[in-house]
Fold each of these.
Amino acid sequence: MDLSQIKQETLVVASTYKPEPRFLLAVLQDIQRKYKYLPKQSLEVVSEYLDVPLTKVYGVVTFYKAFSLTPKGENIIKVCDGTACHIKGSMNLITEIKAVLGIDPGQTTADGKFSLEIVNCIGSCALAPVMMINESYYGKLTPAKLRAVLESYREGGMVDAK
Amino acid sequence: MEIIIDGKKVEAQYGETILEAAKRNDVYIPTLCHSEALPGLATCRLCMVEIVENGVTKRVASCSYPIQSEIEVVTDNEKLRRIRKTLLKLYYTMAPNSEMIRKLMEQQDVREFNRCKVDTENKCTLCGLCVKACETMGTNAIYTVFRGAAKKVGTPFDEPSEPCIGCGACASVCPTNAIEYLEENGTRAIWGKTFKMVQCKACGKYFATEEEIAYLYQKLGDDIDIKKCETCRKKANANRFIAAIKAEGF
């Protein structure tokens, strides 16, 4: 994707909000949803459109874990490592994911299908150990169940069950 | 209005901070992140004092707490000393080689603290005074980036910041001298950028960057005198003053 296209698309997304600094987070979230990360050019466009200095935009982006400055895979796996999940063996899930996909937390598979993240708590402790893929939750996971879920996404046919 | 600081009655203005009133009355309150040019940052918390207001005792940051009633202030007691000591121990683990921290530790009777791993390279306590200075200049070249243990002061993408004019306000306000810059051969290198400096028309000292002078002209118009360094400007004004009173026959 060339730079001017990113800039143009970003402006379209940003323009759904009034050009006021208070919409910074909302605009960034929309762009993150669109590209699965925040391209540098987008930040420049947002900075100019909302009249927020680029350094502040960058400060906000690096503050929140929900934002990423590097491209992410098509499917983002978030493994919960909150207290309940940790005790229920969330680290076994990480090991299993590494065995299946060959990636560590923070990495993306070579085919660009999956990214893996560890998050602190996703508020579904009753389902521990739990993970999210994109917007869907998968609870009470075992390595075998996890394998099946990943397989279904790998085939590419899996539609997010809301 | 009248307030009481450490048992002594002193005059205070409505709305001024406790720290201001204390300073004027020669009462010392330790500070780290306080700058007279950029007051009220209130991040270091070393200036904590205890006050009694409307019968309620509480501890507040004296650099930002405005005097609005006839309060009673205590600047030093067991509890406050303990708070300051704890803070300084934490600052020491962040920036053990900072002269300012060491001076404050000595003054507040804090011994070296070995329970935490210290970062010997770091001098920054993340008070944010540099960011405030940059913001006040209107340049917005630096900001606090990342979060938690990784938090630091930096430029976007760790690249040279486009709006930076190399004025060095950040480095000059830094209480722990954590911001590095290098001046040599008429240049100043700071935040990954190198600026050409301008010489004072009177003494020849390099005193500001070209970008800084251009920025000041752009903001203030052509009628400001920034051809000379600060010392020479003061000298020139003093000479004019002496000439003027001599002419009046003193």
Amino acid sequence: MRVSLNLIRKYVDLPKDLTDEQIAYDMTLRTVEVDEVENVGSKFHDIVVGKILEIKEHPNADKLRICMVDVGETEPLQIVCGGSNLYVGEKVVVSKIGAEVVWHGQGEPVKISKTKMRGELSYGMICASSEVYLSDFFPTENESEIVDLKDFDCKPGDSVADLFGMNDTVLVIDNKSLSNRPDLWGHYGIARELSAIYNVPLKNLPKYELDKNLPKYNVEIQDTTKCNRYVAIEIDGIDLRKSPMWMQSLLSKVGQRPINAIVDITNYVMMAVGQPLHAFDKTHVSGEKIIVRNAKENEELLLLDNNSIKLTSDDLVICDESDAMGLAGIRGGKKDSILPDTKGVLLEIANFSADTIRQTEKRFAEKTDAGIRYEKGLDTQKVEDGVNLALTLIKEIFPDSKVVKYADVYPNETKKNEIKVSEKFLDTRLGKKIPQEKIEQILTSLGYKISLENGVYNVIVPTWRSTGDVTIKDDVMGDIARILSFDSFEPNPITISFEHSVIQNDVLLERRIKEYLAFRCGFYEIFTYPWVDEKYIDISGVDKDKSLKLEMPPAPNLAYLRSSLIPAMIEAVSKNLRYYDEFRLFDLEEVYEKGDYRPSSEDEILPIQNNYLAGSIVGKDAKEIFYEAKGVIENMARYCQMEEIKLEKIEKPDWADINAYLNITKDGEIIGSLGLLSLKAMTEAKIKRTNVAMFEVNVDKFVPFASRTNEYERLPELPLVEKDLSVIVDKEITWAQIEESIKSKAKEIEFVDEYEGNQIPDGKKSITLKVKILNEGTTMTSEQINERINSILKTLNKKCGAKLRED
Amino acid sequence: MKEKLEEIKTKGLEKIETAKTLAELEEVRKELTGKKSELSAILKSMKTLSPEEKKSIGMQSTEIKKTFENKLQLKEEEIIENTSVLKEPIDLTLPGKKVSGGALHPITQMKYDLNDAFLSLGFEVYSEDDISSEKYAFDNLNFAKNHPARQSMDTYWLEGTEDKEGAEKLCLRPHLTGASVRYLLKHGAPARFIYPGEVYRNETTDARHERAFFQYEALIVDKDISFSSGIVMIQTILEKVFGRKIKTRMREGFFPFTEPGYEIDMECLVCGGKGCKVCNHNGWIEVMPGGVIHPNVLRSANLDPDVWTGFFINIGLDRLVMMRYGVDDVRLFRNADLRFLKQFK
């Protein structure tokens, strides 16, 4: 919404020393955020009325003329102009040097300077309406048509801003910010807020004495749940004249195009008091009767542009005896247009239920200025403000007009809410005692009626805040707090108690895992979307039957919600391969699958949701990255201070290589998997010339230790003897077999290296291991050491067929 | 003979002085004090001399040997002090070896910074699941039945539940606030807790808008506390996160689940409050909606609003991280692009 401060000042005398920016700031803090303070007048600096004294041909251009223009200064200005409607004596809009105009009505404003146009000097510009923000008053198709001020009482040198009432400031407010305040959809409501903020009186709206003995206009409301009030006023003595400049000016500034006096008055009233109005040509209403009813199913309404819309029985329409003429509270149809021959009008000032309007708007995906106001919930009493202001203006602009018929059908009246608010409640919740006079001043200027009895305020809420906005004592407290400004309250400290110290091991575990992966293992953390591209679901072989789907997905291929992080991880890997060939990623987020999970109450059955961790290591050497990934999982429990997890080969995950995979288990249950990405998946995902090791695990199955559990072992008094042994074994022999066979004979056994190659016979491999042996009590002699090593080699030979490698 | 010895001494000291390396010095040492040295030769040839001469030459030789040994010792110390462990010259401008890569996502970094700040104030961390129901996402939070946020244009409903109602109509949660009631139902009051998480809205995306984004909400519920306590908390937190005092303002805001509600703006860190593109030329950035918990929300959590009160603040993590680093496109947070992620150590 655009708010003109000139109009606001008609309703409230703001303190003189306030800047417009300060007003906007105070409103932002206390009422509604002002997005922009638009100084309209400043756009018109150095733009004045000029009078063409002389027109000469341009020697070098057919379409250009050289004009001598009187701009109220001692010397006339020479201006080169291509206008198609130039004549001597014409009063025009001149942008002098330094003025800023919008070139051909498009783009950012450009500063006028002295220029040579085809060799002739020009000291300014004679403007078309779109170049100087005047198209609302001079609509033209032809951009070479300049503004002709022949109908205006003005003289050379006059300020154009003054002539069009543009010395004003407009506050721009986002409509969304006003959703909860139906009373702020007119200038009068904003003025009321300012009167409360600055403690200055709000002026009364004009009253119009309507003769209540007039003949009744025939109005029938069929569905009184949807139409709360309908005032119809028939007025004669109307014509299609233009509205006065002050009204056109205001409408233009607040974003409404002036059309003719009748339409302008309805718009002006809506902008001023927030009450929508509608004017019918009285002769278009057949049978001199208005019927407010539900549309028939599939009933058609012909619109102004000759298209018609199909209605449903939930839509409320305004009809005469024969047809539907308009969608109630939203828009008129073709039949109700105000035309050049309009001599009399029927004014509709009505109140429709917010729900009806909102639903119809939704059905037709259409929001109008009237609909936007009704859908917020207007009070039925606002109709009177609309009637009074509209009739006052009509009388002023059409002095010969006459109200001939009148009706006020009023089935439902907005009731004033009544709320009890204790002083104690206010004192505690506001955190300080606000004097009674201050509370009374704030609430009274906002329109509340209050009385205090035994420490309890009885608060009567004004009708314009009683349609849902203010219903409980907290709302009243909120009004007091915001007008005082939230910033004006001394912050009260929050106490911290020792009982409240918090240690949450599950929360800390998540952080330990992330930091382990990022800082110790070199992974980068990524986040992915909960909806996954179906292509990658298929590639990873995830079972779609257990996955949930969105009703309205961001795109058709993104309907499935993730039940695994693998698909998104494959996508992330394949995207990053464009820039990197070796990297590590991890993603820790929730996955979902169909099921029965009731975290908060028995009636709410949610799908099963678990936090999963997925990781990937990308590199050329498949075996190497496999063991790297295995190392990441193997060491996770120790470094992250949680209960042990194991790796066992039990069941191949769909995405994994046929040989290189392991399952991650905890207490015998499979909680995740680790493996190389299968050739099939890589081919389908177009991952080439590299390999990917991946893991995925349900981290909700991890159990954090309550405290660190490192065990201390006394340092040995005697040195450990270390010996590297390289043995040749059959390829089928696993490390686990080797380790198991000699476990009892050494203090520690470490894997060093595995090798297959030229020096090793076919079908064999070389394994290098480090054994550490220790003698209790005394230092070993070299004979004792050899004896122990030989015994180890003998066992290796017996159990694994290993022979010491001799090179 | 005396003259000979003096000559040996002078030449010897010269040799010691000219040695440049420990190896050279070792050579000199052998030459001067070893068995085959001139000094040894002289001592061996002394047999023919008179006892007096023997005595005097002997003393002289011993003294020269001592002088040599002292000098050698000093020279050795001098050489060690001036010798590098490197045999070859070193290019100090070559870059150092890379440390292993890896980093937390910038959003996670911010989340942990906030966690540290809130945990120091005695807050608990709570997390709600991504999928919630209309009951917890809207009904409990005092959203009107016809509130536009409930529509499919705003909220992602799950297929097959869109025609149901309340606890049976499921969605990707559109905000975190629903978690407040879950926590309070479980733990009761008083309570102070934070609940960071991801939320989802059906929006058209651009550089400033995302369908999935990160929020961080905090709630205090207690008896007899005033809403103005909220601002202390916010200032403390911002100071912890940005490492200095940050100017804030509290202004009117409206949310169904608060009464009163407020918006908390912080001064724009890009322009220092002067006004720039980032802050839409007004010097302030909206970072946290907040407000006093609405009585109806307390009722949903089985708490008596005449006894209990409290306040929320909700921090837009994406926006805060964008402010912290000057990131200009919110979509970068979720596109898993290492070119972006590698910048945050």
